[in-house]
Amino acid sequence: MEKTESEKKSPVSDVGAWAMNVISSVGIIMANKQLMSSSGFGFGFATTLTGFHFAFTALVGMVSNATGLSASKHVPLWELLWFSIVANVSIAAMNFSLMLNSVGFYQISKLNMIPVVCVLEWIIHSKHYCKEVKASVMVVVIGVGICTVTDVKVNAKGFICACTAVFSTSLQQISIGSLQKKYSVGSFELLSKTAPIQAISLLIFGPFVDYFLSGKFISTYKMTYGAIFCILLSCALAVFCNISQYLCIGRFSATSFQVLGHMKTVCVLTLGWLLFDSEMTFKNIAGMAIAIVGMVIYSWAVDVEKQRNAKSTPHGKNSMTEDEIKLLKEGVEHIDLKDVELGDTKP
């Protein structure tokens, strides 16, 4: 059943979408940490694992479409292929960036996604931001930077990979919202169309990317029941993570997704301290506090901007399209002019 606009934009469902994204994202990071760490199961094939994620997501989408739980609207194949290429480049470039750069520079490159997304939305969608939004973005970037950035080392190859990762990831996230609006498709509908393409390509090329990164093929890995359980858990969480990402960007914007998405960084650091005995310093705590303040300010700033826009256009649209004017003229030509007071047709 088609949802109304109010149902799509209700505050409860908005909070639910963000909560699903934060919980599933943090959960998948915890599961992957257990799966891929040397103290866990040592499954060092991140790109292939992402292929498993999309294969599982594609399977859920196929079952949903087959049972009639979701509808399938037409999106041109070339758009889906283009989007999948950008998304896969983002995944591979992120993995290469993490391998070639220090953790500090990797975190800095991820922070740069917020201004890059803002610039791309300005170029592609002519979107402008008020000074309050810009200030809050800077506060978030500074806060996350303080609590995550440590050693910063960079080299030419790593710098190129980081730039590619930031640009492709930003473009992919903007494209999610654009495709949903352009073809009037829901978040799950779009995901179910792109997931099979990404799954096939990542499962074909992923093992070679992982071999370049780790020097091992996945065929040499000895599976255990514990590793299989972690992979299945990671895939299940990935379905919710992917759906909520498309849902959040479709409801809000890529910029909001990036800014408020850093709440996941705060949660990961906190859970790492609680569950994995990670070090929690005053620098981490101060950075997280600043980031949270920035997110609160950002939410307030976006609300202020919406109120300003509403005041500037209090009566809705102030102009008509050519088609609307044409229809109005045609309607007037076919209506008898009447005296409003007497109700008589004028000669």
Automatic annotation (TrEMBL):
Main location per the UniProt record: membrane
Q: Where in the cell is it found?
A: Membrane
For this protein, the record's InterPro entries field holds: EmrE-like, Sugar_P_trans_dom, TPT_transporter
Q: Which ranges carry the Sugar phosphate transporter domain?
A: 25-299
- Top-level taxon in the UniProt lineage: Eukaryota
Transmembrane spans: 12-31, 43-63, 75-98, 190-213, 225-247, 282-301
* Membrane-topology descriptor: Multi-pass membrane protein
- What are the protein's UniProt keywords? Membrane, Sugar transport, Transmembrane, Transmembrane helix, Transport
Listed PANTHER family: SOLUTE CARRIER FAMILY 35 (PTHR11132)
* Protein name, as recorded: UDP-galactose transporter 2
What is the native source organism of this protein?
Camelina sativa
> Source organism lineage?
Eukaryota, Viridiplantae, Streptophyta, Embryophyta, Tracheophyta
Q: Which gene is this protein's source?
A: LOC104702437
